[in-house]
Amino acid sequence: MNIYADNAATTKMSKKAVSAMMPYFEELYGNPSSLYSAGQRAKEAIEEARETIAGIIGASAREIIFTSGGTESDNQAIMSAAANGKRQGKYHIISDAIEHHAVLHTLKKLEKEGFEVTYVPVHKNGIINVSALEKAIRDDTCLVTVMYANNEIGTVQPIKKISEICRRRGVVFHTDAVQAVGHVPIDVNDLGVDMLSASAHKFHGAKGTGFLYVRRGVRISSFIEGGEQERGRRAGTENVAGIVSMGAALKEVAADIDKNVPRITALRNRLIDGLSEIPHSALNGDREKRLPGNVNFCFEGIEGESLLLLLDDKGISASSGSACASGSLDPSHVLLAIGRVHDVAHGSLRLTLGEDITQKEIAYIIKSVKEAVEYLRGFSPVWNDCVSGKSKFIL
Ligand SMILES: *Cc1c(COP(=O)(O)O)cnc(C)c1O
Predict the structure, then answer these.
(1) CATH code 3.90.1640.10 for 15-252
(2) I want to staple 182 with a disulfide (CB 3.0 to 4.6 A). Which of 196, 253, 306, 369 is the partner?
(3) Whole-number Å distance between alpha carbons of 78 and 111
């Protein structure tokens, strides 16, 4: 069996998205800024994608800026809000400890430039402490940025509640919704957010394309100098094919979202139940308030990367928050933030399901993970010490 269970990292492009973008590499290659018809047809395709995307998230077309992806959208939202804050002498930003690096590293940069950032803690279930957030707001707070859904543990934050607080206090609110758009229904007006980031390759569109929703009236700056594309808010010749693929991909997932959410959620719960049978394991993140397709576990006594290699042999593509898998010395900052100690965080496994996941595949994943964990524990000194009573189990 071959199962791609790493949809939080990226998704396979849908056939519709691929075929929608192809003409813009071939016959419709005109520059959207050109006045002759080949250019204008490309321009029309961009505007059509903008209308489609805006319609799906309840925005108006003018509120959508096309970018090179989630990272750029996050950067632009945060840097813009900081620039606005600076003009008003407001140098305080609020975020939390489990954001994506696109947000965290942008905030780190601002801290070096004299901004002060409060990182609100999350509860053990990965949900942000809303009352701590409310208390952290000051007169000089120029931005609150909290992700809609976490890319590792899938937790869905109370965005509406947070935006109500921000609105009451007159603070701009940005949400990184890269994991949510295309996976759960999103309406920017219902949510009340001021800015929202999304990325096409997380919902079956092309890589290198994203958008930033900016509510009318919120001041936004361009951080790329050049032409007047995107109404002066993002310079550079548009990624026409990518933008077209994003519109097509979002339209396709949005059409099936009401049917897919309950089905994927049920299969996810079955997977969680199956993996919970493994002794000394724990689910990471809230069981209910999580993305439909996200499963994240810690298994005591094993290394995440060894588990990934064994699963790969069985045809399963997954991911881990262990140090090696995350490409640093420390395990995932998200797992540490929810209170997992280093040893336990190293034994983490993330499975993120696609829309085409089946019951049979879920059963196969459960069986494969059980076998792999048991096998690895068989020659794990840490595990054997716990079994023999030399040291204590943590989970
Ligand atoms: C993937 C991801 C990003 C980055 O998006 P890119 O389009 O890959 O740059 C940002 N935030 C979250 C939560 C993500 O999952």
Answers:
(1) no
(2) 253
(3) 12
